[in-house]
Write a structure and sequence with these properties.
The protein is α/β, with parallel strands linked by helices. Helix content is 33%, strand content 18%. It has one domain: Succinylarginine dihydrolase (L-arginine/glycine Amidinotransferase, Chain A), CATH 3.75.10.20. Strand 6 and strand 7 form a beta hairpin.
Amino acid sequence: MSNVVEINFDGIVGPSHNYAGLSLGNLAATKNAGDTSYPRAAALQGVAKMRHNMAMGLAQGFFLPLPRPDTGWLEELATDDTTDPALVAGAWSASSMWTANAATVSPASDTADGKCHLTVANLVTMPHRSHEWPDTLRQLKLAFADGDRFAVHSAVPPTFGDEGAANHMRLTPSHGEKGLEVFVYGRPGGRFPARQHEQASRIIARSHGLDLEHTLFVEQAPEAIAAGAFHNDVVAVANEGVLFTHEQAFADPSGTYAAIAAKCPGAQVVEVPASAVSLADAVSSYLFNAQLLTPPSGEMTLVVPEECRENGAVWTWLQAMLEGNGPIRHVKVVDVRQSMANGGGPACLRLRVVADPATVDHRFMLDKDKASLVESVVSQYWPETINTAQIGDPALADTVQTARGKLLEALDLTELL
């Protein structure tokens, strides 16, 4: 198991990246609805973030944009010229860039059969994302095709909403060891929809063959969802033996912490009090939608968006944390403003997979040369801007499809065309 590490798979931002404001409960997405987007800049920001992680010595992978517009989905909906514009915009959505919603992942050390299990998320709560999973599943089956080491599952039945790793955390002394898997779900009936259903999480835990003694199901605080924490990773993130969380992340914080202590002795909770950082500041800055990482140096690092530095309360708390003797030793800042404006921070852009990188299809693993190749294709073919009034335009559709095709050709992944 010596070659097993955590690999972050980031979504390359697709050429149809736009601000149609389709995600109810995602305050940034709805606030910026109708604004002009910058797909080229968005994709380049994403690659720069991946380069940032590689520079820390971390393994980095990627997933590709899905085919857009999804004309097959529009045909299923029997669309015509009078169709609701939101449905048309849904066919153009580039939301698959947020690969934290691609799947839920259980490393081999946690599962009964000793394989790394991945279950693609059905994303049924939001129409614009509900048609992602078949194409995402194709990529997962290709990237993790080694059947001796990986088991890739189809989506949970659509009766139960599943939003993937954005509502799943793992606590363990080190990535390759057996860990405590924490599934966070929401209760329906609040101001915004609760996207992760408890039964979806339990289905995944059973299908992955998890030991219930090392599994925890926790309710997200309704007030967090109402404040715009549409996924748990907007208010909490875990890495190895550390849970970094807002005081109001969970419906029963003390009970959650006690259960973690009982099932994962030695785990540390770094709780940010609401008196220092309000839920509103946590959501607007995406303090917790950060990447909490352990680089080869061993000093745990929090990678936050630029918006955290611009929020006085958040930045003051982070500086005070660093002056202490806590487990998080460094804070690094990245610019992902185009993603942030659509409601996705650094953590949204990545799916964590604990595995030996050599067992993954090499075409999905990033290095400096491949990053330069992606940047070259994006700079040449991605639209510079998209106004929401252009959504549905046949000329723009041709541009978007051509751009994706050029990227797949450059990366030798044309079987995904």
